[in-house]
């Protein structure tokens, strides 16, 4: 999508041969000259001169060690996340060359056009990451290696789904399991699945790990329709029983035949006045909690998407990872 990653054989590191022999010869000749000069001069020596000579040798050794350590030609510092250019194979720090290619897409050393960057090389697994320049107008290759586990791959997709909801024109959820076909709102028996869902989805929405305080409040909001409808059904049943008793008492002398209601009629009657999972109160409270600290998220849009997801998850009967791997989002 943004960058191309592939597995392949590690490109062998190219080492630059330095003229160490000539410098060593030069150093040895200088040392000989200095020794000759000392012999030609005063024959007396003291411990102070010997101490100074040792210090000079130590300093020279430290300088040589620092000089021989591979460095980036851009920042003149030891490599940080060494990155090789294709096809010239010159190497630089990842951050340095990433900034450079946005100025000019040519190697800083040999000026050859850069085809791609090769980095995140793993010699143990014999893998690397590659970013191809001609696929992009502006270059922002990710420094991170490609995700390898389902969890690593799923989290960015889940975050995108909540943060860019309007970009998905269609969502295809898994089929509803037969035993959950009549589930219209979350029940206490669903809370274990709700807990699993929250632990995975809160980091995707809020970019932070789930905590018991947040989970507790969201669970209470999700159970509001159940609690409200439970009270309404109880109140409705009580009122209905009282009314039927009065009618029976008032018209006992002349009972009129009545047609029994069908299950559908009874269900429709019970559903009248019931609170839905998409009740405006639920949407508002849920949206406020899910978008705490977020400036660019629409609370209502996020809340509706969250309810779509959690209801589809519960009604699918699947475990979380199977569900998120099965659902499809079409842009």
From TrEMBL:
Keywords: Metal-binding, Zinc, Zinc-finger
Spans through the membrane: none
Domain called RING-type: residue spans: 72-111
GO MF annotation terms: zinc ion binding
Record-linked Gene3D superfamilies: Zinc/RING finger domain, C3HC4 (zinc finger)
Name this protein carries in UniProt: RING-type domain-containing protein
Biased composition (Low complexity): 19-38, 234-267
Chain segments carrying region Disordered: 14-62, 231-272
Short name of any one Pfam family annotated for the protein: zf-C3HC4
Polar residues bias: start-end ranges: 39-62
Keyword S-adenosyl-L-methionine (UniProt): no
Secreted as UniProt keyword: no
Naturally occurring in which organism (per UniProt): Phascolomyces articulosus
């Amino acid at each position: 999508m943004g960058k191309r990653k592939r597995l392949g054989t590690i490109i062998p590191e190219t080492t630059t041969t330095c003229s160490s022999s000539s410098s060593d010869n030069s150093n040895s000749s200088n040392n000989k000259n200095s020794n000759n000069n000392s012999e030609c001069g005063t024959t007396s020596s003291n411990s102070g001169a010997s101490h100074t000579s040792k210090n000079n040798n130590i300093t020279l050794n430290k300088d040589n060690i620092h000089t021989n350590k591979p460095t980036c030609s851009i920042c003149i510092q030891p490599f940080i996340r060494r990155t090789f250019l294709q096809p010239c194979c010159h190497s630089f720090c990842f951050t340095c060359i990433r900034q450079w290619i946005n100025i000019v897409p040519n190697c800083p050393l040999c000026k050859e056009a850069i085809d791609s960057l090769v980095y995140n090389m793993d010699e143990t697994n014999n893998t690397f990451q590659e970013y191809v320049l001609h696929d992009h107008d502006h270059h922002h290759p990710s420094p991170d290696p490609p995700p390898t586990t389902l969890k690593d791959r799923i989290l960015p997709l889940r975050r995108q789904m909540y943060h860019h909801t309007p970009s998905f024109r269609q969502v295809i959820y898994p089929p509803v399991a037969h035993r959950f076909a009549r589930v219209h709102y979350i029940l206490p028996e669903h809370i274990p699945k709700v807990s699993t869902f929250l632990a995975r989805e809160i980091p995707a929405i809020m970019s932070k790990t789930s905590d018991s305080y947040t989970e507790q409040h969201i669970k209470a909001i999700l159970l509001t329709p159940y609690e409200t409808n439970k009270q309404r059904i109880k109140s409705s049943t009580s009122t209905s029983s009282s009314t039927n008793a009065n009618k029976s008492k008032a018209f006992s002398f002349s009972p009129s035949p009545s047609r029994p209601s069908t299950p559908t009629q009874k269900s429709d009657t019970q559903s009248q006045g019931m609170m839905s999972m998409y009740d405006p109160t639920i949407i508002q409270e849920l949206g406020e909690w899910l978008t705490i600290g977020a400036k660019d998220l629409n609370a209502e849009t996020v809340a509706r998407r969250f309810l779509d997801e959690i209801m589809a998850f519960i009604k699918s009967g699947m475990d979380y990872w199977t569900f998120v791997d099965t659902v499809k989002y079409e842009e």
